[in-house]
Amino acid sequence: MKHSFAFAVALAVVVSAAPRALAQQLGAASAGPVISRVEITGNHFVSRQNIAQIFGVREGDELREDRISEAVRRLVQTKNFADVVVSTRAAGDSLVLVVAVEEYPRVKEIRVAGTDKIKREDVEAKIMLKEGYFARPGLFSQDVAAIKALYAEKGYNSASVEVKKLAVPNEHSVIVAYAITEGQKIKIRHIDFLGIGAVESKEIRKILETKESRWWRGGELKPVTLEEDLKRIKELYGTRGYLDAEVGVAKQEVSSDGKHLDLYIEVDEGPQYLLGDLSWTGNELVGDEEIEKFVDIEKGDPYATDRIDMLQYNISGKYWEQGYIYSRIVPTRRVRNRRIDLALRIEEGNPASIKEIKITGNTKTYETVIRRELKTYPGDRFILTDVQRSLREIVALGYFAGPPKVNTEQANEAGDINLLIGVEEKQTGNFRFGAGFSQLNSLSGFFGIQENNLFGRGNGVSVDWEFGRYRQSFSLQYTMPYFRETKNTISLSLYNWIQDRVQQQYYTDRRKGGSIALGRPFPWLDYTRLYTSYRIEQVELSNFSTLYPEIGALRTVDWPQIKSALLVSLTRNSTDNPAHPTKGSVNSLSAEFSGGILQGNVNFMRYMAETSWFRTLFWKFTFHMNMELGAINGYTGPHQVQDYEKFRLGGNRRYALRGYDFYEVVPEGNDAYVGGRFMASFTHEILFPFTDAVYGLAFFDAGNTWNSFGSADLFNLRRGLGLGVRIEMPGLGNLGFDYGYGFDKVGGPAWEPHFTFGTMF
Hints:
The chain has 761 residues and is of the alpha+beta class. Among the domains are: 20-103, membrane protein fhac (Ubiquitin-like (UB roll), Roll); 106-181, Roll (Ubiquitin-like (UB roll)); 187-268, Roll (Ubiquitin-like (UB roll)); 274-347, membrane protein fhac (Ubiquitin-like (UB roll), Roll), CATH 3.10.20; 354-422, membrane protein fhac (Ubiquitin-like (UB roll), Roll), CATH 3.10.20.310. The chain is 15% helix and 41% strand. It has eleven helices and 31 strands. A 16-stranded antiparallel beta barrel has the order 16-17-18-19-20-21-22-23-24-25-26-27-28-29-30-31. A three-stranded mixed β-sheet has the order 1-3-2, with helices on one face. Strands 4-6-5 form a three-stranded mixed β-sheet, covered by helices on one side.
């Protein structure tokens, strides 16, 4: 639909019925007539005083055409007036200047009609015109274009918008209605490429976001996306040395039913350029041998823009790593017979130091809590890797929404800078209550309070109470990550829980006790901390199942037993996100010593090793691999190790092996309640975020347990394959469900569900 908008500004300086003397003055070359008075008419909302101030020509000024033209221009630039007409009239011997304005009407109400396929609020968000604004044609045109662009990005390229203006009686105002005719989606039936020869069409299709319609994808034509795709094609040709390639849309053919479109993209490839001589000058800080390591293109190769750009990027990065953030590389190209000689002039500049570090956005967290995570300080040279590491440590706190925003500002004429770090606080505490369900404990209730950033000082506290038919527990934990403003971490905990007998456990397990843990960064390994903890607890097993033999070893124990244990562990964590890592690794080694010189009745030595590795595969998919090994033995022999401390695998908790029931996997030949003294498990997962709070995964688990290290056979593992989902529920905890197929279950392969709801108890 065609729209027409008229805007006219008329300037008329008319001298009529003036006295002869006045006419003579106008004709005089020496000076123009003098304005005796300025009258302003036609205004509704803009005051006469405001108009007069903007107009600028006043009583007593000389009447000159150039000054009047400039005054009118100033009024027009306010965009409040549809028309401005200036005229003169005589009043006796006086000259009156009349400024007649025609204001645009005010917008009293805005209406949107015809939004069936796109939410009305999404359309309204694109409208720049607001109630109370002047109804200017320019705003209408802008809004129409924005609405049509919104529909085009959703695939409705034939959408049209009509602007209707309804005058309000007795008011200089209008009701504006945007009437939308949405039309139907036009889907791309076919994409063809004209003029290509150096690059195959399948290579071009791989980089395009614009796709042909298929049953699994929409195939809508989105103009902005198409424009970006044309740039991608040009860049692709640049990586092959075709620097003059031009790319455009040759034609779009819409089908007779108006539902499909054939898209033809034309490429004028132009000549291919090769690299001639490559040289660089000006590098004193970085030696030639260092730069040569970055060169992966040889003389005679196609002049690949991506490789040339990466060369310059790597050289710049080398300077930034040493604080030379003002360094720059100036490339000079000389073309001869389709060969390009490239000369890089390196301007090293001076190094920059950090004068101040300014932190903003921390409305709750004390600034010292953030600053103690920094790896660079005021007075230090600006080293890019140190700044990046500082940001990682801030993210690892888990107190802020997303990574910090970083900027710099020049601090002085010497080139020093201020480092600006902006954070956004997020909820770090929650109050939980409700019901939960797990495959092991069935239905239970829970109540909990957790705060990981108590009073903004970075300390953590949690209180949890769980009550149900098979499990009752209470725990209290308090953690200070920087005890007395040192790098030492201290954690205290108290607990009391009862795990009633379930099918897989054969007895009721009751424990109560407490622990204290100390941690400190390990000085010789980055991302690494050394932890030492002491735990003392009372263990009592009772209510044995009839399936547990009368002469079973655990029946003869004098309950309760006292467990006094020391755990030493070394953990290295280089992941990029504490909740959902996409790269990095977590590795840990631990040794636990119970009894012996520590006294108590429970005697064993347990050694564990675990590694988790994360890598981004493509798009949002992340690959996770985990391996865990464990061994347990007594001080004088295996007989010292109680059965309940041995390894039994299965389920999705400690010693997990999905596809198998909890505690199902024990050494071959053992009774179902007797675990092994050596275990190994391997997990492979591919994770994908549907939203920030919902993750899907596919997994393959393999593991087993044996009576000794010598009898272990890593080629004889129980295997499980399946799918799972994780949902974070604010205030409640997590919902998790895994459905695994156990290939090597006793009795034959079968599916096994594993799920939890509420807290992950």
